[in-house]
Design a protein that fits this description.
alpha+beta, Jelly Rolls, globular, binds fe (ii) ion
Length: 283
């Protein structure tokens, strides 16, 4: 149930799962590419704080209109839930999320996570000085980009777009890069934290869709449904595919963007995840 084969996608089921749940699972991806990336992420996040802080990247110019920052984000730096309520709904954040304009997020403290964010505008000099780190990141980013384009073809068919219509909005162009971002995430152990803090607070992604990889079947990911938080379990050898804000728009609200968070039940254990935010290009 709810797991589809990446290379033999049942379009009726994909349509059903996205309408009903806002997410599903895909199996048959290239595990080696993903495992290599997990190894690199663990190695990097295990470095001391001074080392990691060297890899914060901020940019001026066209880049900063949509992405004010890339590279490393230190723990509690970012509040996914609250940082967007001040912004216009049409503005993408660094990691392609949008919050719901809601008072409850006003005083949200920072999320209990650290991350490293990869976009094609990250220069080759911005990567940590770790053997194969850059190679494994770029390899994974290219792979996830290509399977995302493949997944987009299925959505084109289900939503009755002309072939290539959605793809052309998401591919690299002469004048602009894609809006997609690969994010390595680490949820460190916390002994003490503010009661309003979550590993990631309630939000929706601004993406077309998001791919989530866990290296463990244990997960604290939850979705908000009928005023309740419901667990999204991890599955072995599968990644999670969920809807974002842009797909809600493209599908004329046939699919709603998944409202989700990462709660703190596993806060006594380190956890890692890899996210691929697949979003339209900047044109
Ligand atoms: Fe998200």
């Amino acid at each position: 149930m709810r797991t589809l084969d990446l290379y033999d996608i049942n379009l009726n089921l994909l349509d059903l799962y996205l309408k009903k749940f806002g997410y599903c699972y895909f199996k048959n991806y290239d595990k080696l590419i993903v495992e290599n990336l997990f190894s690199q992420a663990k190695y990097f996040f295990d470095k001391d704080q001074n080392y990691k802080n060297k890899y914060e990247v901020t940019r001026e110019g066209p880049f900063s209109q949509k992405y004010d920052k890339l590279g490393y984000f230190y723990p509690e730096e970012e509040t996914v839930a609250s940082s967007f309520q001040k912004q216009n709904e049409n503005i993408y954040s660094t990691i392609n999320t949008k919050c719901e304009a809601n008072q409850e997020f006003e005083a949200s403290p920072g999320d209990l996570k650290e991350s490293f964010n990869i976009h094609e505008e990250l220069s080759i000099y911005d990567y940590p000085d770790i053997d194969n780190f850059k190679y494994d990141c770029l390899n994974a980013k290219n792979y996830l980009y290509s399977i995302s384009l493949m997944l987009l073809l299925s959505l084109e068919k289900i939503l009755n777009f002309n072939p290539g219509d959605l793809q052309s909005q998401h591919i690299y162009t002469k004048n602009g890069s894609t809006g997609s971002v690969l994010r390595l995430l680490h949820y460190p152990i916390y002994k003490k934290y503010n009661n309003n803090s979550y590993r990631i607070g309630k939000h929706r992604d601004g993406t077309t869709f998001t791919l989530i990889f866990h290296d463990d079947v244990y997960s604290d990911l939850q979705r908000f449904e009928n005023e309740q938080w419901v667990d999204i379990q991890s599955r072995e050898n599968s990644f999670i595919f969920h809807t974002g804000w842009n797909l809600q728009k493209l599908s004329d609200k046939k699919y709603n963007a998944l409202t989700h968070r990462v709660d703190n039940r596993g806060i006594n254990n380190d956890r890692y995840s890899l996210l691929y935010f697949f979003a339209p290009n900047k044109n």
